[in-house]
Design goal:
With 645 residues, the protein is of the alpha+beta class.
Length: 645
């Protein structure tokens, strides 16, 4: 058997495989993947020194015809690992793969190529055919279920909620994961009927994708976490082998303020605000140590026209109406610029129509809103880019603040992370991530979220050297890739009345934001005020348990409805904010650790760890989601290594 050994970071290839001689690719000191050298198919998996017979490998499916193939090809040894090329001539597809042992994982890079020159919709999967019936599938860090013959686990949606998965039986554990770059449509699942752990990519191939014509590049990891800690151990190892997306550049921490001037809140520092989304009163923000952000909405643009303007018109018709009816030249030019951006950057739906609609809204003060979903890719090959429009506005705000002796601290992205498909073929030319597919029949497209992702990446690359940060609102399951381009962020939540305690959404935010600042934004409407006040301290407590900054927003324009404009509301809880938020600061500084190394005698309760014993201090947070007080015992072998601790 040809064997790859790993010693620290050094990889040694001892012998080139002979045809028929299995290739063993290590993923840890005592775990490995075994492939047939003449086909590249999986023959076995070694976990903690135990060999499990296995099947699997790459599989292809034409999403239009349903035809499938398991391409085969000879493995070639290299200094870094092994390479493989598989042909599926009947499908007009070719897969090239690179297997690279890392210290704690096996990294696999795959390039899927179309050989027909046509647009294609293809499912590319890699399977590890291991009989894991009786093991456990981990839905997330807090929930797992026994694997039962015939059932399928995970992968029930178009996207998986996480970039990683874990199965274990108490003695052995097996994980697969994707990096957070590139942005792909993927599913991780265990199929108990087929007896395989499987990763599937939905890939669109098109010659119109000029940066990778008729090709898609993906990567994934195979690794073996500690079975005692299941998904938590898988997350811990994932962060170690893929740390960049979980590193923040934000030096500011604290609550997220939406609209209100902090000067209107006496002793606003008691509430520990950290981010102001629309930058109101930057002078007071600076004094309070609050980041002044510039508001943009990368995935949408609108034009507010008079109430009696015609509805549901084409962009050409709207332009003609504006030229004829705009009240002033500067208004006409502003409206026309936005209409031109809509025309060139609008997403295209499956039926070929552009993605926009008209409506009236209270926030628009009775005006007619033409609202359009747009592609904000900074490389989009059009004359009137939405990205360039936002950049000009950002530069103007930055220059004005500088003239006033103040600083812009970053950019706030609203409604971030759209999942709408974009079939507009001329937009394929600039995309930096693999195309996917949607529709009936399936055909290649990109996603609104990819354009937003590329815009956020551009902001970070350009402005972080100036110490600007990127903060976003709106990303949520399963939009896993957006957290990689943020420094801080938040999601609007109806926690008080609609979210279960220790629920999947906040667990998901905790895992995806890891070392970054997260600010849930408790949102309530008029009919929920009483519910809010009966639960607000619970909200503060659970947010603190997760190391999140408990922010609050109230919609509508009535003063009695706005938490931060009514002293009768916020004064009632000033002392609770003074109590809880400094604890969040402490936890954020220590850093959330997915493996708690501590257990509670009552599994209905929650426990999390912040900090590492090796650093001299760590913290355990406990949360009781039940209505009654509980007596609980903690079992842990954690001990600080510092003599002063």
């Amino acid at each position: 058997m040809a064997r790859l050994l790993t010693a620290s970071a050094l990889l040694l290839y001892l012998s080139a495989p002979c045809v028929g001689d299995p290739v063993l690719l290590p993923a840890a000191d005592d775990s490995a993947l075994v492939l047939a050298s003449d086909t590249g198919r999986v023959e076995a998996v070694e976990i903690a020194g135990e060999r499990l017979e296995a099947t699997g490998g790459f599989r292809l499916e034409d999403a239009v015809t349903g035809e499938t193939a398991e391409p085969a090809g000879v493995m070639t040894g290299t200094e870094e690992g092994a390479d493989w090329v598989g042909e599926a001539a009947d499908l007009g597809l070719r897969v090239e793969a690179r297997f690279r042992p890392l210290e704690e994982a096996l990294e696999v890079g795959a390039s899927l190529r179309d050989t027909t020159g046509e647009d294609r919709a293809v499912r590319l999967s890699f399977a590890l055919g291991v009989d894991a019936v009786g093991w456990r599938w981990w839905d997330d860090m807090r929930r797992s279920q026994a694997i039962v013959d015939g059932n399928a686990y995970g992968g029930g949606r178009q996207h998986s909620d996480y970039p990683l998965c874990c199965i274990e039986d108490g003695r052995r554990a097996l994980s697969m994961a994707i990096p957070l770059d590139p942005f792909v449509t993927h599913r991780l699942q265990y199929d108990a009927a087929a007896r395989e752990l499987r990763l599937t990519f939905d890939l669109g191939l098109s010659p119109a994708a000029e940066k990778f014509p008729s090709r898609a590049e993906v990567r994934f990891f195979i690794f073996f976490p500690d079975p005692e800690w299941g998904f938590r151990s898988a997350a811990e190892r994932y962060y170690r082998m893929h740390p960049e997306p979980f590193t923040t550049h934000a030096s500011t921490r604290g609550l997220w303020m939406t609209f209100h001037d902090l000067a209107e809140i006496p002793l606003a520092e008691d509430f520990h605000f950290g981010f102001h989304e629309n930058g109101k009163n930057p002078a007071i923000n600076r004094r309070l140590g609050v980041a002044t952000l510039h508001y943009v909405m990368p995935g949408q643009i609108d034009v507010l026209l008079p109430f009696d303007a015609p509805r549901k018109q084409s962009f050409d018709e709207v332009e003609a109406w504006v030229r004829e009816n705009a009240p002033r030249e500067e208004v006409r030019d502003r409206w026309l610029e936005r209409v031109q951006i809509m025309r060139e950057c609008a997403l295209e739906r499956d039926g070929g129509e552009l993605s926009y609609h008209t409506f009236y809204a209270n926030w628009a003060r009775g005006r007619l809103v033409y609202d359009c979903f747009v592609n904000s890719d900074p490389d989009l090959p059009v004359e009137h880019q939405h990205a360039a429009y936002m950049e000009r506005a950002l530069d103007a705000v930055d220059a004005q603040l500088e003239a006033d002796g103040l600083d812009l601290d970053g950019v706030y992205l609203d409604n971030f992370g759209g999942g709408q498909p974009n079939f507009r073929r001329e937009h394929f030319a600039s995309v930096d991530h693999p195309l996917t597919f949607r529709g009936d029949p399936p055909r290649p497209c990109t996603l609104a979220g990819i354009g937003e992702h590329e815009y956020a990446q551009h902001l970070g690359d350009k402005h972080r050297p100036e110490r600007h940060i990127v903060f976003a609102n709106g990303w949520r399951r399963p939009q896993i890739f957006h957290s990689a381009v943020l420094d801080a962020g938040g999601t609007e939540t109806y926690w008080a009345t609609r979210q279960s305690r220790l629920g999947p959404q906040w667990d998901w935010c905790r895992v995806l934001m890891q070392g970054k600042v997260h600010c849930p934004l408790l949102k309530f409407d008029k009919d929920e005020i009483n519910a809010l006040f009966s639960h607000l301290e619970d909200y503060l407590a659970e947010a603190t348990f997760y190391g999140f900054y408990p922010s609050i927003y109230t919609s509508g324009g009535w003063k009695h409805q706005s938490f931060w404009l009514d002293p009768g509301m916020y004064e009632r809880y000033r002392e609770q904010f003074r109590l809880y938020v400094p604890v969040v600061d402490l936890l954020q500084e220590a850093g959330w650790q997915p493996v708690t190394r501590a257990r509670l005698s009552d599994e209905r309760l929650g426990i999390e760890r912040y900090g590492a014993p090796a650093d001299g201090a760590f913290y355990l947070t406990l949360y009781n989601p039940l209505d009654q007080a509980q007596t609980v015992a903690i079992e842990s072998n954690l001990r600080c290594e510092s003599e002063d601790a």
